[in-house]
Amino acid sequence: LNDFYDLFNYLVIVQMDATNFNLVSIAKTDIAGKNINLLPSCHSTNDFCLDLIKKNNAIDGQITITFNQTNGRGQRGNKWLSEKGENLTFSLTLWVDYVPLHAIFFLNMAVSLAIIDFLNMLVVEKDMPKFKIKWPNDIYYLDKKVGGVLIENVIKKENFWSVIGIGININQTNFKYLSATSLANIYGKTFDFEIILTELIQKIDCQLKNLKKGSLDLIKSAYLRNLYRFQQTSFFRKREAILEGKIIEVTEDGLLGIEINNSIHYFDIKEIVFVN
Ligand code: BTN
Q1: Residue 166 alpha carbon, nearest atom of ligand 1
Q2: Helix and strand numbers, DSSP H then E, in the chain
Q3: How far apart are CA 225 and CA 69, in angstroms?
Q4: How far, in Å, is the centroid of ligand 1 from the Cα of 202?
């Protein structure tokens, strides 16, 4: 328990059982993080939240967080690896009745933007490169991945429960893959989780409010402005073929629009990967 106090000393424990610590966040938010569920360890915070939804025990706005995620999942069936006690791995559960199902991707855009807003706030020096969103919602710094988002929805008629899983590499410095990095590697110092989490939750809350207000154009234009390799000639792999083109659009259902030989082609996440 002392370890958790060290990591999270600004939070108040309001309830506790054998495996569960319920905490109240001091972050001033309207939607995200009114309730925080800190787990000593867990296979995957997304799975934990999906299970709560299945059992009708989900809480709108609840954040489930652990510093020891043992079977984290990423997009495309990948694993999400995170060293114990070093990084942020959490899921936000939302009851969404303010986004039509055909525009569900706006939720992905809003969340990625919130993460980028938060990370770019940390970029103090003017000439330092900015963090970028790699379509659909990877978080990149230069050509390395700092974080990722896995959103899983449970649709109930016109509305849905959304589990927004977020992994951000904070203090870990050694990675199995060369393409991964962390804030500690970028800045050469370690970060306090309590500050990071509070500020990040506030940014997420702010973007969710934009979504609730229906500021969809604003969200989309900011997403495109912060998109990795937007309007730059890049290479992509589709099955065995290598394609050369420019990202010029992301549709509201999340397809990537690439201009190839003067015509636009649309791809979903299973069809195409970047070639670095
Ligand atoms: C990706 O980049 O492929 C998405 C990674 C998402 C990882 C987070 S960590 C918290 C949450 N629980 C999971 O099992 N996955 C997400």
Answers
A1: 8
A2: 6, 16
A3: 32
A4: 20
Whole-number Å distance between alpha carbons of 170 and 191: 7
**Can you tell me which atom of ligand 1 is nearest the CA of 71?**
14
CA–CA gap between residue 195 and residue 9 (Å, rounded): 11
Residue-level length of the chain = 276
Q: Locate 194 and state its tokens.
A: 């309590």
Residues 28-53 have pLDDT tens digits of 678 887 778 888 899 999 999 999 99
Helices (H), 188-239: 193-213, 216-225
* pTM greater than 0.85: yes
Q: How far is the CA of 197 from the centre of ligand 1 (A)?
A: 16
Handedness of CA 264, 266, 269, 271 (dihedral sign): negative
Mutate to test the pocket of ligand 1, among 67, 115, 150 (most ligand atoms within 8 A of CB): 150
**How many CA atoms lie within 13 Å of 187's alpha carbon, on the beta-carbon side?**
19
